[in-house]
Specification:
Elements (H helix, E strand, L loop, with lengths): L5 E5 L5 H16 L10 H13 L3 E8 L2 E13 L4 E11 L8 H15 L5 E3 L6 H9 L22
Parallel strand pairs: 4-5
Antiparallel strand pairs: 1-2, 2-3, 3-4
Length: about 160
Amino acid sequence: MNETQVTVVQADLSLPEHQVATLHLLNAYAMDPMGDGRPLSDTARREVIPGLREHPTTLVFLACQAAEPVGLAICFRGFSTFAARPLVNISDYFVVPTHRGKGIGRRLIEAVEARARELGCCRLTLEVQENNQHARHVYAAAGFAQAVHVPEAGGSLYLTKPF
């Protein structure tokens, strides 16, 4: 595949075709072993697009080859208190397995980074499954590394507390 055949756009979730593409790719990611390993619930399918549309910091990027959606990045703007500047967190990032290794993931990250720079952000953040070697390679090639703010404190860890 020629990279020029891939288009990355910031999605407009008021457009039905962007809604359908986002939901389709998010469900594919959910079913991926490095996602959740199962399809989105009926509730998530029904509520995710309205929820993303209502959330004030949502940024969604779609990668398409011709008319086929093949990649997704769902991001949210945040704020770095120490830098006193906004940041962008890549929350969900997915390339259809049959399209991996073709530069699509890199193009998605480049689009997210370009938008973050336009917004005056100080950095991009993300989380990745420890054993997701393919994604970790893509992220490392794009310049991501474990955050270390003070060497004596060690690297940052992402923790969660489900409710």
